[in-house]
UniProtKB/TrEMBL annotation:
Signal peptide: none annotated. This is Citrate synthase. One of its GO terms (biological process) is tricarboxylic acid cycle. It comes from Acidiphilium cryptum (strain JF-5). It holds the Pfam family Citrate_synt. The keyword GTP-binding does not apply.
Length: 439
């Protein structure tokens, strides 16, 4: 493969297939940030070959203006703004506006956006009845998947994905209703009455209210916990083309309605290699039990035959500290301080585990660092959430990112149905043999 340059940067790469007279001129595309990207759209037409990239680690599946990650430097930007600045200074709904529309809102824009979202926080009363159909011990992710997908039955006009106003209303509905669905999934599992949303509260506070409040008691706000919740939501709001976002885009590329697409994203998020990791971290810490058991656990992780992973460590893109993990660790200390928890064995165990892993050549040589999930579970546990609610909380926050990515995709004139190819390694063509002649 060779390249043509213009100024400092190459403009084309040329791929030559040895032994044939076929070459492909691959334009090199430049983003605002990040490495150049070889455009292989004409590769097959020019050479007859196509590419093999299981897990798509080397493939840009779309053009996007929403989120940028520099995995080597540990940088995460939403629409250009560093995640630490947003986590410190912004609010979740402001970030939602930023992700959806590309800019932080003016005061007037925020007021209108806030009103636009909050007027959709209630669920149709028929939706409320769905919950009764689930077993009490149903995993809340199963409930979220089912209820969010079912919303399309209540908003049939949402199938008009080519209508910009319908798309926007669907986005508002999803961002507004997902806290209500998530909180009710929790209430259902505990047997407590569902609390209806309160539009006088902030997005994060309203969610905490629907989770924690009970009708006979006055609800007491806690600004520190509200801030922590808001920050957790901001940190999880978007993360470019990860597995669940790519799932939303793939489903959306067929023209499926947004509620169905977000339900697909929730399903993809559920797995322990993705959003399920925060739940898996607490399970892992519980199994390790004591810091004396860390060396044996680390030895098991390093044993190729064990299939045990250090959950909350490693990332497909970050080969440095996940910037969200640092903010999570700080938030964790703040929340425990506010709650008066001076001694949290799980946090102490996690910090010791992190220290040992960051000193171990196995993790250092593979550039495995703590990711966002390493500390989030400890905070959520301290805030009173059961472990099964950790991944639903992630889904709640990520709904804003998913729907922003979906909106961007639908409006992109170059978008077409997502349809990967394969390297076929099955049987070559053969003829059918009748059953009496097989054996
Ligand atoms: N513990 C132990 N070893 C690990 C870990 C880990 N957590 N993560 C990666 N490795 C090892 C792999 O075994 C592999 O080793 P090898 O080169 O000897 O074969 C090497 O590091 C490279 O790892 P890959 O599996 O190729 O990395 P990939 O990019 O495919 O996977 C993933 C990324 C899925 C996140 C992985 O690191 C993992 O499973 N981590 C634990 C689960 C987790 O925390 N997920 C949350 C991710 S963040 C999020 O979704 C919000």
């Amino acid at each position: 493969m060779s390249s043509t340059t213009e100024g400092a940067r190459a403009t084309h790469a040329t791929l030559t297939i040895p032994g044939s007279n076929k070459t492909a001129e691959l334009p090199l595309l430049n983003g605002t940030l990040g490495p150049q990207v070889a455009d292989i759209r004409k590769l097959q037409a020019q050479t007859g070959i196509f590419t093999f990239d299981p897990g798509y680690g080397e493939t840009a599946s779309c053009e996007s203006k929403i989120t940028y990650i520099d995995g080597d430097e540990g940088v995460l930007l939403y629409r250009g703004y560093p995640i630490d600045q947003l986590a410190e200074k912004s609010t979740f709904l402001e970030v939602a506006h930023l992700l959806l529309y590309g800019e932080l809102p003016t005061a007037a824009e925020f007021e209108s956006f806030n009103r636009g979202v909050t007027m959709h926080t209630m669920l149709h009363e028929q939706v409320r009845r769905f919950f009764d159909g689930f077993r009490r011990d149903a995993h809340p992710m199963a409930v979220l998947c089912g209820v969010v997908g079912a919303l399309s039955a209540f908003y049939p006009e949402s199938v008009n994905v080519n209508d910009a106003r319908e798309r926007e209303i669907s986005a508002f509905r999803l961002i507004a209703k997902i806290p209500t669905i998530t909180a009710w999934a929790h209430k259902y599992s505990t047997g407590q009455p569902f609390m209806y949303p309160r539009n006088d509260l902030s997005y994060a506070e309203n969610f905490l209210y629907m989770i924690n409040a009970v009708p006979p008691e006055p609800y007491r706000k806690n600004p520190i916990l509200e801030r922590a919740m808001d920050r957790i939501l901001i940190l999880h709001a978007d993360h470019e083309q990860n597995a669940s976002t790519s799932t939303v885009r793939l489903a959306g590329s067929t023209g499926a309605n947004p509620f169905a697409c977000i339900a697909a994203g929730i399903a993809a998020l559920w797995g322990p290699a993705h959003g399920g990791a925060n739940e898996a971290v607490l399970k892992m810490l519980g199994e390790i039990g004591h810091k004396d058991n860390i060396p044996a656990f680390i030895a098991e992780v390093k044993d190729k035959n064990s299939h045990t992973k250090l959950m909350g460590f490693g990332h497909r893109v970050y080969k440095n500290f996940d910037p969200r993990a640092k903010i999570m660790q700080q938030t964790c200390h703040e929340v425990l301080g506010e709650l008066g928890i001076k001694h949290e064995p799980l946090l102490e165990l996690a910090m010791e585990l992190e220290k040992i892993a960051l000193d171990d050549d196995y993790f250092v040589s593979r550039k495995l660092y703590p990711n966002v999930d390493f500390y989030s579970g400890i905070i959520l546990k301290a805030m009173g959430f059961p472990t099964t609610m950790f991944t639903p909380l992630f889904a709640l926050a990520r709904t804003t990112g998913w729907i922003s990515q979906w909106m961007e995709m639908i409006a992109d004139p170059s978008q077409r149905i997502g349809r990967p190819r394969q390297l076929y390694t099955g049987a070559p063509r053969r003829d059918y043999v009748s059953i009496d002649q097989r054996g």
